[in-house]
Amino acid sequence: MKPFRAIGCILALSSAVFFASNAAAVEVAGVRLDDSVRLANQDLRLNGAGIRSKLIFKVYVVGLYLPEKKTSTADVLAATGARRVSIVMLRDVASDEFAKAFATGIEQNTDAAERATLAPSMAKFNTMFASVAQLKEGDALQVDWLPAAGMTVQLNGKRILEPLADTPFYNAVLRIWLGNKPVDDKLKRQLLAEP
């Protein structure tokens, strides 16, 4: 009997290791998103992920990384510490079209008074998009909040936006996906890990 118990324990341990290693990443539309990332000396966990579709086209995969799990927009916006929105393009999109989509998402989820206070950061954000002709399939954008520096954006590992120390603007960007009028209700639920 003892040899069979030993074999059973080995199989159980092997299965646990196999499933633990596979749980280290999530795959969405063929895009691998790490279960956790390290940003600003802080471990962030994948809160949720999904696909942004427009009409019948899959545009990008997006993942939201936070220090701890959040299931409401208010909690995400109030979160302290580092945060990340990771975007991987599923098709080619002109950067001016992408910038317009971002601007529309912000406009739909902020009132006129708030938009006025966000205007300087929005101008810098638009300049960033103007510096990139096109976002291509497979391109990866990281839209990060670094507590000591502010909002930064990297494209394929290269910084394309110098830090913007503007928490309300970063939260306005988050509301593109998580606001009262998100770009996609289903995607909002996925990012907030709702059942």
From TrEMBL:
<protein>
    <submittedName>
        <fullName>Chalcone isomerase family protein</fullName>
    </submittedName>
</protein>
<dbReference type="Pfam" id="PF16036">
    <property type="entry name" value="Chalcone_3"/>
</dbReference>
<dbReference type="InterPro" id="IPR016088">
    <property type="entry name" value="Chalcone_isomerase_3-sand"/>
</dbReference>
<dbReference type="InterPro" id="IPR016087">
    <property type="entry name" value="Chalcone_isomerase"/>
</dbReference>
<dbReference type="GO" id="GO:0016853">
    <property type="term" value="F:isomerase activity"/>
</dbReference>
<keyword id="KW-0732">Signal</keyword>
<dbReference type="InterPro" id="IPR036298">
    <property type="entry name" value="Chalcone_isomerase_sf"/>
</dbReference>
<feature type="signal peptide">
    <location>
        <begin position="1"/>
        <end position="23"/>
    </location>
</feature>
<keyword id="KW-0413">Isomerase</keyword>
<feature type="domain" description="Chalcone isomerase">
    <location>
        <begin position="25"/>
        <end position="192"/>
    </location>
</feature>
